[in-house]
Amino acid sequence: QLQxxxxxxxxxxxxxxxxxxxxxxxxxxxxxxxFRQAPEKEREFVAAISWNPxxxxxxxxxxxxxxxxxxxxxxxxxxxxxxxKAGDTAVYYCAARRAYSFDLTAASDYDTWGQxxxxxxxx
Length: 123
Fold this sequence. Notes:
123 residues, mainly beta, 7-stranded mixed beta sheet, 4-stranded antiparallel beta sheet, 11 strands, globular
């Protein structure tokens, strides 16, 4: 099971840190991604981190503002979001898959999803 948290309401330019915590499994050997879905839009890739080694990937619109990291001892992956914009408003989902090599940017390649956390950025 994945538990996503940390969303909320923030003003433009503010920051939030999302957490994705795994229960019942060792997160250290999973690829983990964050996706988001705004109203009436398709779910889109935001960021991902592979498990060995920990390479990171970002969609262009968040590069330089968002940072994904993992803390294996806590079975957690974090998404630090800085300089938030109104366009970042969405429900954010974390996803995971225990596989050495897969397309971490493709939602269809993940097999486990968290419940989503709402991020609202006011302009």
